[in-house]
Specification:
It is a single chain. Helix 14 (318-340) packs antiparallel against helix 15 and helix 17 packs across helix 20 (493-503). The protein has helices at 2-14, 32-38, 53-58, 121-126, 145-156, 159-171, 180-204, 210-227, 236-243, 252-267, 277-281, 288-299, 310-316, 318-340, 343-350, 359-369, 376-401, 433-443, 459-474, 493-503, 514-524, 555-562; strands spanning 43-49, 60-67, 70-77, 83-86, 95-101, 105-111, 114-120, 131-132, 138-141, 417-418, 423-428, 448-454, 480-487, 507-512, 531-535. The protein starts with a helix and ends with a helix. Strand 10 (417-418) and strand 11 form a beta hairpin. A six-stranded mixed β-sheet has the order 10-11-14-13-12-15, with helices on both faces. With 563 residues, it is α/β, with parallel strands linked by helices. The chain folds into three domains: 1-205, no CATH class; 273-299 and 311-399, no CATH class; 417-562, 3-Layer(aba) Sandwich (Glutaredoxin), CATH 3.40.30. It contains 22 helices and 15 strands.
Length: 563
């Protein structure tokens, strides 16, 4: 009882009552179903003023929507008069959008009803560099104009202090055996400091949107607490408090709250899902090679030491095992969400179960999730997402099926595939890192090489790919080739091909075994995924030249690397 009281006292120093306006309900409330049916998709339009026709051709707007299953990046082109429209997918409230207006301006938008963004280009250019959030020459207009003025003013209010506190949050030491009082004692002072800044801002900037700031702060606070309990059961008093939290925005903070809670449930020792080759052996639709691998595993099960090929036989069953794991994880997630939450809350949380980066796995997950849903608006979104995965799969397959004469690399054997969007695919195993690098250099004498190490499941890797693709397309006349090496770790050949087809990503592509991946990591001092290496036209590796693909802003920046 004493521990529960202490936890409650610590929580009350963070939690304050800044109530939402009358009539506003959280998306997880049952009442939101009726509101969703009556809402229209928020409109986000705008115009770039005093922009030349040439600048219109050269400027692409890249925007990232925060969705119920993560982030989704899109692009928008400017019309001849400098106007634009950002297309949203669903009629949800307070949707956060991160937008790059070329190299001129970066901001976060919130779309609830109707927003019009006006940018005066000469004034932005006068700043001399990319500016963010608010600036002379930027106006947020329309129904959501005041909301966006307010939220972006708050981002910049005591910016250095807010960033310093955010850095302190990441530096809180994790415990192997978290205890609520210790976790809360470590986090509460930091979030109280954020609250102090927020209170000062609200006092000097009165607004009907102040309650949104508090909701965002609490979402971030509870997200952080959840992450410290991944793999460990949370004390009941703390769990009950976190479970009561509701979000009112579709923002990074609110979606992180649902994602971190979902991860917490998934990583609980009692909820962990395991799959082995014996589970696969019970399936009836196995191929002959799979049956042979299972027979070999079964016949050597009791041998000690295990035969050298035992790991290879198990690896051969990897795609089946991963599919079984996903199916079991989704089924178990549905069960525990239905047991812990009300139907509307459970259905919202089920959308977080669809978190694979592979479109075929997304489709399979939604096929399990949809029949369990009873909340209409969640079903509408799940059905549309399911239709999207079907179209994306078909599009990827069409792209891969259309063959072409793409650039090739010598010394790596026969190509698996060449596509009409400029991709050449190879599969490699049993090769040293030095041999790989030597053959790569021999293939592209006189050309620089941009090497991208990635994984099909790596979100940061995939986020960089659209920029890499555009950079590659813009730099066709430069002496440079883009080489993508994808690890087999946690993936398979089909997933690799699908992702290339989905992205329509040109360049030289290698699917490499884990041994070669490890050798390349050592050769280039890669510390994780993604990893980037730059080899100049003379074949000299230049460490640290590329940190992120998006750091190479455009073709001109890439050309500078070649000089």
């Amino acid at each position: 009882m004493k521990a529960s009281i202490t936890i409650w006292v610590l929580l009350t120093t963070v939690v304050t009552s800044l109530a939402q306006p009358v009539g506003v309900v959280a998306i997880e409330d049952p009442q939101f179903d009726a509101q969703f049916a009556q809402r229209t998709i928020p409109q986000v339009t705008g115009k770039l003023l005093h922009i030349s026709p040439q600048e219109i051709k050269e400027t692409t707007i890249t925007y990232t929507l925060v969705t119920l299953s993560g982030q989704r990046t899109k692009t928008a082109q400017l019309a001849a008069d400098g106007s634009f429209e950002l297309v949203l997918d669903y009629p949800l409230p307070y949707q956060q959008i991160w937008v790059h207006f070329g190299e001129l301006f970066y901001t976060g938008l919130y779309a609830n009803k109707q927003l019009y963004v006006e940018l005066d280009i000469p004034k932005l250019k006068a700043a001399g560099k990319e500016v963010a959030f608010k600036a002379d020459g930027v106006r947020y207009l329309g129904d959501d104009g005041p909301l966006n003025e307010y939220m972006n003013e708050h981002i910049l209010f005591k910016r250095a202090d807010q960033l310093a506190l955010s850095s302190r949050i990441q530096q809180v030491r994790r415990s192997q055996h978290p205890v609520a009082m210790e976790v809360l004692a470590a986090h509460t002072p930091i979030f109280d400091s954020l609250k102090t800044i927020q209170t000062e801002f609200v006092a000097t900037h009165p607004s009907p949107y102040a309650w949104l700031l508090e909701n965002e702060r609490l979402s971030e606070f509870y997200s952080q607490i959840c992450s410290y309990y991944w793999g460990h059961p949370m004390e009941p008093a703390l769990f009950d408090q976190i479970k009561k939290h509701k979000t009112y925005l579709l923002s990074n903070s609110s979606i992180s709250f649902y994602q971190y809670m979902s991860t917490y449930f998934r990583l609980l020792p009692a909820n962990r899902v395991t799959v082995n080759w014996e589970d696969v052996a019970r399936l009836s639709e196995l191929t002959e090679p799979e049956r042979a691998a299972i027979d070999s595993l079964r016949s050597t099960e009791t041998l000690s030491p295990a035969p050298a090929h035992r790991a290879q036989w198990t690896k051969q069953l990897g795609p089946r095992m991963r599919k079984m794991y996903q199916d079991r994880r989704i089924a178990q997630g549905i069960r525990w969400l239905d047991s812990l939450y009300s139907p509307s809350q459970a259905d919202l949380m089920k959308l977080q179960l669809n978190n694979s980066k592979d479109i075929a796995e997304q489709k399979a997950a939604l096929e399990q999730i949809l029949p369990s849903m009873t909340t209409n608006w969640c079903k509408v979104i799940a059905q549309k997402e399911y239709a999207r995965t079907i179209e994306q799969l078909a599009s990827a397959n069409r792209a891969l099926a259309a063959s072409g004469n793409s650039l090739t690399a010598s010394g790596f054997g026969s190509t698996l595939q060449q596509t009409d969007f400029g991709a050449t695919l190879y599969k490699l195993s049993d090769m040293s890192g030095a041999d790989f690098l030597a053959k790569l250099k021999q293939s592209f004498v006189g050309k620089a090489i941009v090497l991208d190490r990635w994984a099909t499941w790596c979100a940061p890797c995939l986020q960089e790919m659209p920029h890499s693709k555009k950079l590659q397309q813009d730099a066709k006349d430069l002496p440079v080739v883009f080489v993508y090496v994808c690890t087999a770790q946690g993936s398979d050949e089909d997933k690799w091909k699908r992702k290339i087809g989905e992205l329509k990503l040109p360049g030289i592509h290698f699917f490499i075994d884990e041994a070669l991946d490890a050798k390349l990591a050592k050769l280039f001092s890669f510390s994780g995924y993604p990893g980037y290496a730059f080899i100049d036209q003379k074949g000299v590796y230049k460490p640290g030249v590329i940190t992120w693909m998006s750091a190479i802003k455009d073709k001109n920046a890439l050309a500078d690397l070649l000089n």
